[in-house]
Amino acid sequence: MENSIVKSQAYGKDRVRVVRVVRHQDGWQEIADYWVRCLLSGDQFESSYTKGDNKLVVATDSQKNTVYYLAKTLPAEKVMVPEVFAAEVASFMVKKYAHVTTCQVKVTTKPWERMKFGDKAHAHSFYREGKETRWTEAVITKTSPPSAASLTTTINSGFFDLEVLKTTNSAFVDFWRDELTTLPDMPDRLLSTKVLCQWKFVPQTIEALQAIDFNAAYNGAKRNTLDAFANDPRAWVHASVQTTLYIMADRILNDFAHVDDVYYALPNIHYFPFDLSKFGLKNTQTDAEVYMPIADPSGFITATISRPAKGKF
Q: Which among 24, 99, 122, 298 has the fewest CB atoms less than 10 Å away?
């Protein structure tokens, strides 16, 4: 036991719930509602694991307090965008503590929707429905610790639990067949999935990253996901969820030059036509109108789609 080494380490505070309200003079108000995780790492923390030495340990309670402190003291525009707030918290930590080499901050949010009455948006009332969850993670590392003069910054963002369904224009045909195959060709079917999508921004300085319109990237990723799923004919005439995934990601990369790669996980939530033949009723293929949702097992399709390497054709 005494001869074992610490291969990697990080510690911090998770599930810090923080809400920031911005009150404008005209009565218009905005709200950000976050779950924050902040993790610190650095070689000098090793003794806290191996020797019980806490002298350099920044208490996780102090990290929690820092999240609330920055939520109050930062300009509103640096709090209301999850990517910017995550980067600000991470940057604060590595600059304040010389022995912290890396700070990893993840911000998760399930946005509040502003209430509307007729065509008029309410100034200060919101609601929340079954909506996807947005998240981001900023990692800032000192390149020459303990100095904070030079930092590397990476930001990954995404969403999960975006549940979608369409009742036609989805096919699955011409797949591999052998003695273990029982699934018939399905030239048209009901398709449902719960989308997980994440994208990595091209690494830049923290100042350059904060100039990115992160909300536009999030809205664009969601828009392309939904539009490809519902409207792009390539997503169904090629007869696979894999094709749908590729088209979604390719559209995001084409629309946002500052996105480096896109990852999707698309569980295929099955809805099979229920066999009503025992009752003398047709309910298969083109006659299908009644379906039985199957929770388990489900298909699971993933891929990371990136830009081609320069000079590679």
A: 24
Confidence of residue 236 (pLDDT cuts 50, 70, 90): low
Q: Which residues contact 129 (CB under 8 A, 6 or more apart)?
A: 113
Please provide the distance, in angstroms rounded to a whole number, between the alpha carbons at the two ends of the chain. 52
Percent of the chain residues topping a pLDDT of 70: 97
Task: Please tell me whether residue 212 adopts helix, strand or coil conformation.
Answer: coil
Q: Which residue has the tokens 């990723």?
A: 221
Q: Are 88 and 95 in contact (CB under 8 A)?
A: no
* pTM as predicted: 0.89
Q: Which two tokens stand for residue 7?
A: 């291969």
225 is catalytic: no
Does 60 qualify as catalytic in the annotation?
yes
Q: Provide the H-helix boundaries in the chain.
A: 46-50, 60-73, 82-96, 206-209, 214-230, 234-237, 241-255
* DSSP category for residue 278: G
The Cα–Cα gap between 245 and 250 comes to 9
Residue of 122, 168, 270, 310 marked catalytic: 270
Active-site choice (7, 13, 99, 167): 13
- The amino acid that residue 146 corresponds to is P
* Among the ranges given (49-63, 188-202, 299-313), the one the predictor scored with the smallest mean pLDDT: 299-313
Select which of 60, 109, 152, 167 is catalytic.
60
Is 99 catalytic? The answer is no
